[in-house]
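Continued from yesterday's entry.
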Amino acid sequence: MTLETWLAFFVASCVISLSPGAGAIASMSSGLQHGFWRGYWNAIGLQLGLALQIAVVAAGVGAVLATSALAFTLIKWFGVAYLVWLAIKQWQARPAELPEAGQGVGGARPWSLVARGFLINASNPKAVVFMLAVLPQFIDPTRPLLEQYLVIGVTMVVVDLIVMAGYTGLAAKVLRLLRTPRQQRVMNRTFASLFVGAAALLATVRRAAS
């Protein structure tokens, strides 16, 4: 991959990562509930899901997803159901005793946050179809494909890790201001509504006509 191509892809990756979506909502929700260091495990899970999507596209399976109405529909509705389930859990979350600034925040185990982030990205067929349309534009078919997809994958993951760190850290800063149970309930229900909104948007996604 030439430097010019990589720079163009780097800019595209920044735009994609900064665009608000289910991953950004999940990162802010995790930062709000668990603080930055624990909440950031969610971002690790998001990257595992992203890596899986890139591998699917690189292996050519993305083409099957793009052309199979059944596969697309099954994955889409699994993603919708999972986001709605997250919304319900967020809505029902009880106000917690928050630590002073600089102290750790307890809560979910790291691996449960990793799994949550992974499922959010892995259950989004729109992302796979989107990458199937975008990634080949940065691939030179006359050069080794594996190395190019590795560069693309590392670039997207690193950029998204940085962006999700920003979302998680921003929410973790807000965490220090939410001291009363009422404030926490309002914020939990706000994020629950955002998860429902993300689910509604995913539900409207249609497979591109062949």
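--- second protein ---
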Amino acid sequence: MQVGNARYLKPGDLPDTIAVFPLGGALLLPTGQLPLNIFEPRYLAMFDAALSGNRLIGMVQPALGEQDEAHLAPVGCLGRITSFAETGDGRYIVSLTGICRFRLLEEKETHQPFRTFRIAPFIADLSARDEEDAVDRGALLAAFKAYLDANKLEADWESVERASNLTLVNSLAMMSPFGPAEKQALLEAPDLKTRAETLIAITEIVLARVFGDSDTVLQ
């Protein structure tokens, strides 16, 4: 997988430990881009360290049902800083591009103000394009269009049509306006096909809850 100027092809290309950025409701997936506005001193220090090193950050949500960052969800996504700007008022505006998911193992003790964990990367994510043919693109686009129509929204359909199945599934999952539990379910889906099916199912549930009959909306 090519991310920015770096290539991640095998386990040796990935770190054993990573600084993690807990952020509820934020979803990063392989190949996806996540913009971030960094202003807390501990996370400014985290990005300073990443920029002077391998440019990698682990995005992870707080554990579901937790109100603080003491307990974290078991699975996150590794991202590379591919865009960086200083605002002049002490903030950083950055963009992370997703590489692969990881499972948190044990926390490492450091003298840094941010948390660092040993991780087990999902190596299969580096070759996820092999899974693209299994995605029901028609059903995914139908659910997406139904959601747009129900909410009177528009989309750049030329860009949508050009997108690969991998980019389409992960981009739609990341931009979906669902809650932390749904975002975590999309993150932890075992493969691209299941993630697409999960995204369709969640969309149908939301449409049924709001409009009463998702089947009518999806037609």
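The first helix runs from residue 41 to 51. The chain is about 35% helix and 25% strand. Will compare against the first tomorrow.
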